[in-house]
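Quick start: load a record and inspect it. Here is Zinc finger MYND domain-containing protein 10:
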Amino acid sequence: MGDLELLLPGEADVLVRGLRSFQIREMGSGGWNQQHENLEKLNMQAILDATASQGEPIQELLVTHGKIHHEASIINLLETVFFHKEVCESAEDTVLDLVDYCHRKLTLLVAHCGHDGPSEEEESQYSTPMQELQKQAELMEFEIALKALSVLRYITDCVDSLSLSTLSRMLSTHNLPCLLVELLEHSPWSRQEGGKLQQFESGRWQTVPPSEQQKLSKLDGQVWIALYNLLLSPEARAHYCLTSFAKGQLLKLQAFLTDTLLDQMPNLADLQGFLAHLALAEAQPPKKDLVLEQIPEIWERLEQENKGKWQAIAKHQLQHIFSTSEQDLRLQAQRWAETYRLDVLEAVAPERPRCAYCSAEASKRCSRCQNEWYCCRECQVKHWEKHGKSCVVAAQGDRAK
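Running the structure step on this input writes:
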């Protein structure tokens, strides 16, 4: 994998320099699609670099040129590069927009905790293209929210170097510690399916063996690290107002701090001590000493530029962007095929491919479209009723090249 390279250093530099902002009405246009392809290539190259432990040239380019602007591609790229504190520090005031974005995604994640997704049996009943697209959109939104959680955790790693405005927005405006407690309580990345515990990991729901059910999941770990950073950092503690509500929410954490959890994350013993002290302390009245507050500039600018224009923008896009011909669609499909090279996708995959029918580890791929994996011929035959239409379309697209 270390020898696999999607972009040469010079090519990556050109792509990063070329990143630019687009007007809302341009989204979906040829230029927007080209930038989306470039972002995907940068994203995959960043994952390859991180996996091979070769240094981080993509991260260095983004810091050097100050380019961090598509949603799923960007949040995945941010998750990869924000592991490095210098990226967060170089983002400067735009971190405020990123904090707001992560807060919106996590709030929606908590709000949908009570609405369980369809079971595997129900998923198999999706038949129309519109239902399939809706299912994919919901899954993508869910995955984006989980990526936002990771990005937020990396931001909290830099909490002592964040600006006062960003710190105030995290602790006072959004009260992120309490939101993180809600996430731990509901654990939207875990569910019971057919009497078995499943956790969402590596882009899919996976059944957890009984022997590993006490093991801390990666996403739970991200929440605990973020809480640790926000509650025990000297800078954060100096600016966080522990009101009666905040105190009540945070004390719920005591029930989660079991010996099993502390064995896996020993540093949480400090958090346990903080909560024991908090239980005996008096709640603080709400603070009202912040007179000036910095506003997220990107979100504010978008709202001001497009206020009252949303219907006109939608009409323009319908007429000029989303009314493409069949030939245009085939050309775009060909470009996507060239972007998503199979050898690169296999290299950046977090685990071995899984059978599209039974989810067992797979070693055989559909010979016609090369898109689906199977563990055996029997599973491929059983899955054909669902896979057949998309397989024929993909094969036709390949022949059109």
